[in-house]
Amino acid sequence: MTRSFGYCVLAVALGACGVVEPETSNVEQPGINLQGINMQGINLQGINLQGMNMLGYRFAGATLGGVPLVDLRVMRGELVAGHDGSVVRGTALTGAQLVAETRNINVNPPVTTLATYRISAIAVEDSRYDPTGTGHTFLYTLQQFVPDDGTWRAACPADQDGRSVAIPLRATWNEHGDRVESSTLFTFGCTTGVIAKCYRWGYRPWIDEFGDLVPYHQTCTRVARADYCGDGTPHTHDGTQINVWDRIPSPGPIQRHGGLLPPLGMLFEAGWNVEGAVCLSHARWLLDDALLLAAICPDRLVPPGLLGGTVCDTVPQVLGLDANARLFDETNLNPIHL
To answer: What is the pTM of this model?
Structure first.
């Protein structure tokens, strides 16, 4: 997959012996080269906001044609609601208006405000973005109402397919990049942001055919933004190449390594869990000042040569430090972005 992220403002609602490395495969998915090279990015939700942080969309207060939507909910990547005595879903929700909670970060202390959005179009997700074969979700074209001039403006930038669309997920993400379960708010992740991108790579948090994918989706949002510390801070530049894979048991893995060797010019970088990087490779430690890396993640990263050093150059070494590590990556190891 090629993942390339826009410039929009970040909106946060992301050696043990005997361990066998994952089987590799050269199966090519549409839009994905043989080794699954992706592009890192810094945006989590991808919503276009000026000086605001997205907290989430309310389940309450939504309307369609001026009639309230009842029991609005997210089911397997699709909005479903009651409307005038009937259940509406799929493209039938075109024209619905939603209320979102945003945080104004231009004032001190920040103030929570409300914004109005409408769904101007709905389309079935492309099957190219369903590597697990578990069924399609829907893509929602969102527009935000601008009270200053009474206009509606696109909420999402255009993705690699030229579409300004978003995917709904039944959770929110805070300023630290943590997934937060909520009964009142949900997320629309633009397909230019990593929340939606990780869904498209197969880590759909609502499916159970591959076990519990919630931690894999959350880990993916850390990897995709090089959020080593797990504090919501990205340490990559948009467009940095990366190769990501997992060790999910059969019928997994979902993302395979793609070859016996790393892609040309890439080296092993890190192992990851939901809290961020488990460890970094010698190459990463050598490229960037060890004291700098340790300073930005003092509770997670320990330089080579010190007691408890968090250093790994292979999957077995990662698992020796954390048997529950979820994902692994190789990259061309550009200097970290602070």
So the answer is: 0.86
